[in-house]
Design goal:
Blueprint lengths: L2 H28 L7 H29 L5 H28 L8 H21 L2
Helix pairs in contact: 1-2, 1-3, 2-3, 3-4
């Protein structure tokens, strides 16, 4: 996949994730505040917070990727890992808080591992970036 296409995908995903994080946080603060327990609301808010952190990280990856292809592979893996991590980590926390289906909590660490892989790849990309 070309660097330009990856950059566009990552910027678009970052924008969608960022916007949905703000909307989800506002939804939780207002519409869900009286519907969820404090524990469930905290879980939802954790999902929104990590979604925003990784939307910004994904934007950074896209911007660095657009500067040149030297570290393209590591930037690409970092970007995809942040996308997968956001969907799995934050998505499982949203679902857990809204449904109280306990086994969803077992999926969350898979998203966390994806985040760690993304940050690791970003570190390696930084070491090879020119």
């Amino acid at each position: 996949m070309s660097t330009l296409i990856l950059t566009r995908i990552f910027i678009a995903a970052a924008a969608v994730f960022g916007g949905l994080s703000v909307a989800g946080g506002a939804f939780a603060s207002h519409a869900l505040k009286n519907q969820l327990t404090d524990r469930a609301l905290g879980i939802f808010e954790t999902g929104a917070r990590y979604q925003m952190y990784h939307a910004l990280a994904l934007l950074l990856v896209a911007l660095l990727l657009s500067r040149g292809p030297e570290s393209e592979t590591f930037f690409a893996v970092a970007g995809w890992a942040f996308i997968v991590g956001t969907i799995v980590f934050s998505g499982s926390l949203y679902a857990l808080s809204l449904t109280d289906i306990k086994w969803l909590g077992a999926i969350t660490p898979v998203g966390g591992v994806a985040f760690i892989v993304g940050w690791g790849c970003l570190a390696v990309a930084a070491l090879t970036f020119k």
